Amino acid sequence: MLSAHSEAKLTGEFGNPDTTPPTVPVVQPAFLPTRTTPSLRATWLGHACYYIEFPSGLRVLFDPVFEERCSPFSFMGPKRYTPIPCKLSEIPIVDFVVISHSHYDHLSHPTVMEIHRNHPNAQFVVGLGLKKWFEECGIKNCVEMDWWEDIDVTLSPITGEKRISTSSKTSSESSPPPSPPSSSPTSTSPITARISCLPSQHTSARTAFDKGHTLWCSWAVSSGSGDNSRSVWFGGDTGYRAVPQVPKGSDDYGPEYQHLPTCPAFQEIGELRGPFDLGLIPIGAYEPRHIFSPMHANPFDSVNIFLDTKCRRAMGIHWGTWVLTPEAVMEPPQLLKKALAWKKLPETGVFDVCDIGESREF
C-alpha cells in the first residue's frame, strides 16, 4: 500500500477529492441490548468495520478502527471526513473480533486495546503471523489461522466462556458447525459457530520493512441452526484482477481486456464455503486502476466477487471514511449501480450501501 501510494503521488495521479459535506450520512447506531434477534443484523461502522448480530446470539466485529486517522501517527496520515458513529463502549456485546490484515485502515492498536478493556472476553481471530502482534500488546485471547482453516466454537452466552477446536474438515467440505438440537435459542442456550479463514488478493504491512510478513484474508462466519442459521462472508480488502494502464475513458472490462485473468479464489470460496446469506464486499479505493487494481476492487470487480462467492445479498464496505485514493468520495455507490445494471441485477435490494451507523436485517 505504501509503495502504491508513493507511485501514484510521484506520477501525479493522486489528487485530492472534495470531501466537503454532505458526503455519506452518519447516524447513531442502535445496537440490540440482548442476544435475542429473529434475523441477521448488520451495522456499518465506517470503512470496513461491520458489527454483526446473529440470530443465534453470536456477536462479531469485523476490522474495527475507531481513530481519526488510519496511520501509525496521530498527527499525520489519512483523516476521517465522516465522523465516528459511536464509541466502542456503546457496543454492548463483542464475542469475536475478526481482522482481515495488518494495514492501518483495518487494524488499529488504540482500538484493539480499547476493545480488550471493554470486552476482556472478546476473542481476536487473525491471519497467520499476526498473533505475535497481539501478544506484544498483552492480548492472549487470539487465534491465528491459515487460508482454508476452520475453527468450531461453542460459546456460553452467560459467562462468555468459549471452547474453540480446529475443524477436521478439508477445504472441499463445508458442512455447518455442530449445533444444539433446538432451532430456537434461548438466552442461556450454548451458541455455536464456525469461523473460516479464506483467501483474498491483497498484501500486508505495518512498516516499510514487513510487507507480506503476515497473512491477508477474507473470512466466513456461520452460526445457528434451522431457521436461525445464518452465514456471512467478509471480503476485508481485496483486488480481483490486475489491470494495465489503459487510455483515459476506456472500459477495462471491454472486449480488448477480456483476456486479463481474475483471481480464482472467489469462485473457490463460493463453491467450497458458499452460499452466504450476506457478503461484506469492498467497493472503494481503486484509482488509478493500473496501480491499485491488484489490491483493491472497483465496483465492477465487486459485483463479480459477489457472484463468484455466491452471496445472496451484499453490502458495500471500504469507502466513505478516509481518502485513500483519488476517485470522488461518492463515486463508489454510483458505479455500483452501473455495475449491477451491467450484470442485469436490480440496483437496490441485492447489493446495497447504507449510511454509516445504519443497520440492515437479513
CATH architecture: 4-Layer Sandwich
- The H/E string reads HEEEEHEHEEEEEEHEHHEHEE
Q: Supply the number of helical segments.
A: 7
Main β-sheet, in a few words?
8 strands, mixed
The CA-CA distance between the termini, in Å, is 34 Å
Number-wise, the strands total 15
| CATH C-level category | Alpha Beta
Strand order of the largest sheet: 8-7-9-10-11-12-13-14
- Could you say which structural class the secondary elements and strand pairing correspond to? alpha/beta
Mean pLDDT: 93
- CATH superfamily placement: Ribonuclease Z/Hydroxyacylglutathione hydrolase-like
Number of domains: 1
Shape: globular
What is the name of the CATH topology?
A: Metallo-beta-lactamase, Chain A
Q: Uncertain spans, ≥5 residues at pLDDT below 50? A: 179-183
> Which percent bin holds the helix content?
10-25%
> For the CA atoms, what is the radius of gyration?
19 Å
Strand content: 15-25%
Give structural notes.
This protein is α/β, with parallel strands linked by helices. It has one domain (about 1-10, about 30-360): Metallo-beta-lactamase, Chain A (4-Layer Sandwich). About 15% of the residues lie in helices and about 20% in strands. The protein has seven helices and 15 strands. The protein has helices spanning about 1-10, 110-120, 130-135, 265-270, 290, 300-310, 330-340, and strands at about 40-45, 50-55, 60, 95-100, 125, 140-145, 150-155, 160-165, 190-200, 220-225, 230-235, 275-280, 310-315, 350, 360. Strands 8-7-9-10-11-12-13-14 form an eight-stranded mixed sheet, with helices on one face. Helix 7 links the parallel strand 13 (about 310-315) and strand 14 (about 350). Helix 6 (about 300-310) packs across helix 7 (about 330-340). The two termini are about 35 Å apart. Mean pLDDT is about 95; it is low at about 180-185.
